[in-house]
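A quick aside before the break. I want you to see a complete sequence-to-structure record at least once, exactly as it would be stored in a machine-readable document. Don't worry about memorizing anything.
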Amino acid sequence: MRALMAGGGTGGHIYPAIAIAEKIMRRQPDSEILFVGAEQGMEKDIVPSHGFSIRFIRVRGFSRSNMIKNIGVAADLLRAAGEARAILREFGPDVVIGTGGYVSGPVVREAGRAGIRAFIHEQNAYPGLANRMAERYAEKVFLAFEDGKRYFRSKEKAVVTGNPVRAGFAASALGEYREKLGIGPHEFVVLCFGGSRGARKINESMAAIMKRLCGDGGVRLFFITGDAYYDSCAAALEEAGMRNGESALVMRYTGRMHEYLSSADLVISRGGALAISEICACGKAAILIPSPNVTGNHQHYNAKTVADRGGAMLMDDAGLTPDSLLAAILRLKNNRPLVNAMGEASGRLGRVDAADVIYRHIAGEPSA
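That is the input. The structure line, written in tokens, reads:
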């Protein structure tokens, strides 16, 4: 199979594309995969680090605040269409898969016009503009959330697959990882993270309550801050008279997220699509605090999908304080039946087979 993957800008668009590409290579090892991205996006580094080739087209998104800038954006889109056509002619893909971001639209559109089989994967409950505009050219629209169907016109194209997640995110690993991390059988484990760059409001609130949360024992905290906030959060731990790595472990980043997530009783997170998909794949109760600084407020819709089904508590970033966060955590810590019920509800939303389902549709295999 010759597959062209188009998507980028953020990890939320890039990692699902990589997961699909890796699934294709596992199922058809003689396949050829090419990524198309924008040179200013994260894909320029992430895609090659996973062993895939990438080409770039010049494209950027429309400005919602400065309409004059959109004159140049429109010119870029015309040029991007020509660049996409040239790559399609040169590579000659059997299929094109768009995973969102500004680069995805022109590539999927030109593939559809050229009669090449095209597919879309939408990670969020509220779809991005690129995928909504490219829908007419796609054979199927793969959705992470059932709620996403309402935003697409052709309901017959929609297939709810979930977001592709790494194999390590499985609830069955809970006991193994807790033992590996030295967690006692009666400890209540809280995992707090705000995405790869961290989340200022969440980090500041958690830093202020670490002593009250963990000081009396019984609670183990894993706190992933992101680079920009690590020093201040580590300093807050020291000022509280606590040693890093005992009842609270403060980290910049971890490559073992699946171990910490699988071991947690409660997760505190933003509302990013992949984070939520991993939380649900592990069947975890969560306090979700969507970022207000995202296009279309899509993190709110992602988080609400889980909260409405009983898997999460939804908190507003604007009203978040150390005291409100501590109260929410202690409410759940002191109500194990509620935490267990939330975890079960979360797990019912979780999918660990998304890449397999997507591959079967792309390859034309019958459903399992």
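Two observations worth writing down. Residues 75 and 318 are 38 Å apart (CA to CA). The chain has two domains: 2-165+352-363, 171-349. We'll return to this after the break.
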